[in-house]
Amino acid sequence: RLTIPAGSQYPSGGMYDPWHMSDLNFFLVSGNVSFTCENDTAFLTANDIAWIRAGTAYSPLEAVEDSVVLVFSAAYDPITFRVAPTRPTEAPTDELYHRFYLTSEREWLEEDVDHYEWYSTSGSDPDILSVKWAPNGSLAAHYHGEGAVYIVSAGMLCFNFTDVDAESCIGAGEARWVRPGYRYAGEYATSLGAMIGVLNVHSGPNMNDIPDDIFFATKSLVLSSVGGDV
Known about the structure:
- The structure is a single chain.
- This protein has no helices and 16 strands.
- It is mainly β.
- The chain has 2 domains: 101 residues, Jelly Rolls (Sandwich); 109 residues, Jelly Rolls (Sandwich).
């Protein structure tokens, strides 16, 4: 979780632009930040997400106003300020190395639970789900085949777990992870409504089936990590 004061940058102090050994996602909870990746400049506002592929350099995030950013990566991944690795010449030209998921570009259906999904376009960029919850909107019991990470930028979202796990709610700037194949009794927004982003949602929620106690998830992935001495 990053808190970036207005007029400042994160990260700062490096000789080169930062990059990471694993893919990462920036989720803007509040405020307004801008940065550039591969000559493509993004201006992120609340509930926007930026995905950057492993080994891809980007400029530091510049906060136009006080901003809160959550950073999600597959593993602990300290910032690297060395020269970014060179992509192999045989790398497919249709793969993406960054993508911006902007709430301003999504469609709105004005339903109680208004879903919009950005689907992967190249196999390397992830599917991202944006959901606007009307006050007291709810979803029935379901599970996620690949698991899911829920991130709230506004309002409050609550989850009906099993009798053992009880109930839990998360608010702005908080996140919740659920493992693949874990079926829970549903979720709902409070009277505040909610605005959320959801990561790792390639197959969408399964509302109908009862998963096995031992659940196996399969998915084809494009290698998105950098190793060796670079």
